[in-house]
Write a structure and sequence with these properties.
2 domains, alpha/beta, Glycosyltransferase subfamily 4-like N-terminal domain-containing protein, Rossmann fold, Glyco_trans_4-like_N, four-stranded parallel β-sheet
Length: 210
């Protein structure tokens, strides 16, 4: 999110980021000073099912107020549960909403109620963005018609050396992400070790922290 927001701001777009995070917490990632950042202070556990309904209703109202205040040309939401909240909050406002799945929904389940809501609400999204073709096949035909595959953006730290890199005969496979078990870098390393002897002109580079 921060990578895309910073880029869009750098080329002259007006960007607003709205998060449920505590208002006292600064953004984890550095943001362009031109970006309007709003923390709604709507996190925290629910004590009961009734409390969860009340909290979600409060979140939806807070998000809707933030959307109206920003008056955006388009909404882009990230992560499944937040996608549902944004689609509910933006109902009737006439603003196109793009929702983005950042995990594989086959392995990252939300519970029966939210799964049902996803099947219904994603049909109202202007677009559904996923990261692989395999994830596209998870959805029903009406949602697949709205789905586009867009991999994660990467801002290369080597951008100033593009000409030198273009002249190199060696090919580079880049993996980018947090260095945590969920990302599966251990699987990648084992797989690359198996094929590397047959492809000596390739190397593996991992960018990330964690």
């Amino acid at each position: 999110l921060s990578t895309m927001a910073n880029y869009w701001a750098s080329v002259g777009n007006e960007i607003a980021i709205v998060t449920l995070a505590p208002a006292r917490e600064a953004p984890f990632y550095a943001l362009d000073p031109a970006i309007h950042y709003t923390a709604l202070d709507q996190t925290g556990p629910s004590a009961s099912a009734l409390h969860a309904i009340e909290r979600n209703w409060a979140r939806a109202r807070a998000v809707r107020r933030a959307i109206r205040a920003a008056q955006p040309d388009a909404l882009i939401s990230f992560i499944d549960e937040m996608n549902l909240l944004v689609l509910i909050s933006a109902f009737g406002l006439g603003i196109p909403a793009i929702v983005s799945e950042r995990n594989n929904p086959r392995h990252h389940r939300m519970g029966r109620v939210r799964e049902l809501l996803r099947r219904v609400l994603y049909r109202r999204a202007a677009r559904v963005v996923v990261q692989t073709e395999d994830v596209t096949s998870f959805f029903s035909a009406p949602i697949r018609a709205r789905t586009r595959v867009i991999p994660n953006p990467v801002r290369s730290p080597l951008s100033g050396r593009r000409a030198a890199l273009a002249r190199r005969e060696q090919h580079t496979l880049v993996a980018f992400g947090r260095l945590v078990e969920q990302k599966g870098f251990d699987v990648l390393l084992r797989a690359f070790a198996r094929v590397a002897p047959q492809h000596p002109g390739w190397r593996l580079t991992i960018w990330g922290a964690g």
